[in-house]
């Protein structure tokens, strides 16, 4: 991650700073970045990081140190274009669950990304915005962060430049930033599109090699996936400080828009999780906690009504809540939106139960489901609640 500062360590992400779920994706000698998703078993990244590879693994920097986890398999978006511009997404399924200390992330599901401040996190090269990134030496890549802002969309960029850019962003699917140094002369989208904004000051940053597949967060949710950078000019207007594609001031970058791709991400994750129940009678309401790591316990949501439009999306919000079990100690809290897409009448919510060797009584936690959109819970019902029991298997006596 290139930053404005000349001290790259200023933006080093240390364990415990809230981005322990941003990972390095390794693919046969190449690497990119990625994000660990809810459930702790899948990583979202870019397709071009993995294309044509067989041996994929994930490296995580956690509060307990750096670990490597092999991947069992991965899937590329079926419409991925090999030029690395459109539909550039992939999901990696881990052989074993990520450690409890690795932070999980939810998707940003709204379409209001433009104008939002974002946090970029990745394992890319560092350097100085005035001179571009510095080629890596012998040191292992480290995780860095910086800020920026979503300024426009891919189709907005294409409309402004027409045939003068040699790629064609799919409508609705990309978000664009530029790399500002506080000067209007190097405000790329200000100079070239009239979108004047001179940046985030010393916090401003840009993607660089190694950041591909890494996240752009709005708050703590993944809103964009790093895809490409470009140096643009038009009619003798050249905002790039050095006219080279090197992540220097005046360049732009494109991200796959997660809200546009949430259906593919959600449905791919559902297909990858072969242990999820599909019938009410298969739902298990209690689970042995185990000795270590995490195990999944499921909640099955079903829609029994009739859609007014066959293409309608149905959704509910949900969040876990402590009973006698405590989030972070006995299970990992989740809060998100579940969507039933056209053709779907049911889906599961998975919650990770934390295993340990401590004798303790059986404990419970709850899942609250609320804010139905496209349907209702019944007359006068605003919220549904289900409970799960974590069974102690270490001989606790009470």
From TrEMBL:
SMART domains: Calx_beta, Tryp_SPc. It comes from the Bacteria. SUPFAM superfamilies: CalX-like, Trypsin-like serine proteases. InterPro entries: CaCA, CalX-like_sf, Calx_beta, Peptidase_S1_PA, Peptidase_S1_PA_chymotrypsin, Trypsin_dom. Keywords: Calcium, Hydrolase, Ion transport, Repeat, Signal, Transport. GO terms for molecular function: hydrolase activity. It is an enzyme of class 3 (hydrolase). This is Trypsin-like serine protease. It comes from Vreelandella neptunia. The lineage of its organism: Bacteria, Pseudomonadati, Pseudomonadota, Gammaproteobacteria, Oceanospirillales.
